Amino acid sequence: MLRTYLSAAGASVLKTVRPAPAPALDRIAGPDSPARTVRVTAEADSVARFDRAVGEPVRDVVPVTWLHAQAFGASLELMSARDFPLPVVGLVHIRNTVEQHAPVRVGETVEATVRVAALRTHPKGTEVVVTARFDVDGATRVEETSHYLAKGARVDGAESHEQPERETFEAPAQTLEWTIAPRTADVYARVSGDVNPIHLNGLAARAFGFRGRIIHGMYTAAHGLAAAQVRADAFTWEVEFATPITLPARVAAAVRRDGAVTRVDVWDRKRGKPHMLSTVTERA
């Protein structure tokens, strides 16, 4: 995926210096837009390495976060395309929703279909919505929607959309404490393939306005899902990303269960600001 990141960076520079002509948006976003298809077999070693990196038990069920990692390269390629109107470098992952209808098992071959579903207006720029569908033998097992924000960027013709209001965060009673070392980002980069330099190099991170290296948002999400210990075959998982976690870090977390709903929140202990808010709802 490093080659994809380098290509994306080059494309982003060109778009910043010489913006491409605005294409018809239905050619790059929407149900009829081009899709990328990825076929991957859930090899036991690959899944086990990922499980151990994010705190999941090693078992025959493939985490939905492993599936996300397999499709991420395809989404990066779509957003790096010549006619894509936004620079992919600098996009911020703000939300994620996953619907698991049935689990993917180790050894099964998955076909992931990835496309840019929408470009939407956002008070802070433009929102990019990317969908991924994961099929096994023609049956859809998992569907994912990822939301990214291009800060300060506007696209003519973007779909008008009102953003959901974020509730005022009040830290719950802490049940866990996570210590996240820089090595954690290195390990997650290896098992996920996400080698974005802001997670691996302090200078690169500071060049993008961060105080230092930050942990992958999807690592935090995956670790939170592992902490939820949801074992239902079908569930809906919703994640909202807030302030990034600068490495090294010690953060507070809380796991709260109420019937079929498990909530996992992660926040800065000193400032009381949230890093990630998530909910898992089990379905029959």
UniProtKB/TrEMBL annotation:
One of its GO terms (cellular component) is fatty acid synthase complex. GO terms for biological process: fatty acid biosynthetic process. Gene3D superfamilies: Hotdog Thioesterase. Residues 171-259 form the MaoC-like domain. GO terms for molecular function: fatty acid synthase activity. InterPro entries: Fatty_acid_synthase, HotDog_dom_sf, MaoC-like_dom. Pfam families: MaoC_dehydratas (PF01575). Belongs to the enoyl-CoA hydratase/isomerase family. This is MaoC-like domain-containing protein. It comes from Brevibacterium senegalense.
